[in-house]
Amino acid sequence: MKELFPISPRIREEAAAAEAQCAPIFQQIDQVAEYNSNKVLEAFIHHRVSEACLKGSTGYGYDDMGRDTLDKVFARVFGCEAALVRHNFVSGTHALVTALFGVLRPGDRLVACTGKPYDTLEEAIGIRGHGQGSLTDFGVEYTQLELLGDGTPDLEAIAKAASYAKMIYIQRSRGYSLRPSLSVETIGRIAQAAKAVNPDVIVMVDNCYGEFVEEQEPTQVGADLVAGSLIKNPGGGIAPTGGYIAGREDLVELCAGRLTCPGMGREVGCTLEMLRPLYQGFFFAPTVVASALKTAVFAAALCSRLGFTVTPAWDEPRTDIIQSVLLGNDKRLIAFCQGIQKGSPVDSFVSPEPWDMPGYDSKVIMAAGAFTLGASIELSADAPLREPYAAWLQGGLTYPTGKTGVLLAVQSMADQGLLEAQ
Length: 422
Ligand SMILES: *Cc1c(COP(=O)(O)O)cnc(C)c1O
Known about the structure:
The relative contact order is 0.14. This protein has a seven-stranded mixed beta sheet with strand order 1-7-6-5-4-2-3, with helices on both faces. A five-stranded antiparallel beta sheet has the order 8-9-12-11-10, covered by helices on one side. By secondary structure, the chain is α/β, with parallel strands linked by helices. The two termini are 32 Å apart. The protein contains ten helices and twelve strands. Bound molecules: pyridoxal-5'-phosphate. Pyridoxal-5'-phosphate binds next to helix 3.
């Protein structure tokens, strides 16, 4: 067979060994994808998704059956009462912040219990920047509890804080940090510990990158509210934009009042031509997440064979699609990201450079040649140029092409003599 990409024999050899090593993990990933695909199918059938549901509305969007049914389908899959799935959410951050402003009132206390939240939330909370319009500016109090030394949540401190908290905030994924991601089971333990002390406390989870990695979602183990982005896992690489909030009916209603207007809530908001890709993306999402996971597991196995520190390890249980590879210096980081770009279906010929991205506090290099701009369910690598020069790799619409992207990233380092320097 003709070699389609210029990968050195040594890297190919290591890749073959890495892939063989990953076989049992891939099998587990396929099992979860099978369960979750059927979970989605069952919800489509249960809520009688029809051809008419796929057609969008215009104007105010009153009586948009497709929109209302999609909300119900999401809620059923997430095992909760209600959902708000909208293309109008501009990003995951927008969905998360809509939920925070929707639920919290002046004088309420928000307790982040997995350390500093994701970079883009800092300004919205008011712990970075000028603070205008932030939650803090609106009189919401904020407490941050750090994870313990081993990266696990401090259940004792959380229980104590829950007694005076309105909301306990959990970030499932590691984001741009090196802490472990939190399994759904661990999230359940946090919810239980908090509610044992204060049954009224609202447990909210930033579910970005986590959807469909496990068979259960946080809303099935005690979370009251979750939010995420549709250009990550639950959009299946097909949703062109959007976000979702899911959870308790009363809370989702408050969030809808914030997204649109109090009194109108979920009953307005036209869907234009967006419903078909949102349904279709959600339908594909479990197997796309499986492809992204296999790409991550393969990258972990290959890069650790080549001597790099990776987290999580190839055989560690996963709860999100993020893989970090510690590359040690900026040259390798840039070469790695440029290699990922070379393997992209779109814009393969451009070369990413570090830039000052809004919402982030250090320069970031981003490799992404995606059908949807910025979609990190498609193979992409983001790396803030700061210690320890880790590349955060995620996505992969299909495993065969995700694997090629990883090979090209490694080859790009080798081409510059940066692999041997290890
Ligand atoms: C991506 C992400 C966000 C924010 O999502 P955007 O869509 O980029 O605004 C929030 N939290 C985590 C953990 C994320 O991975």
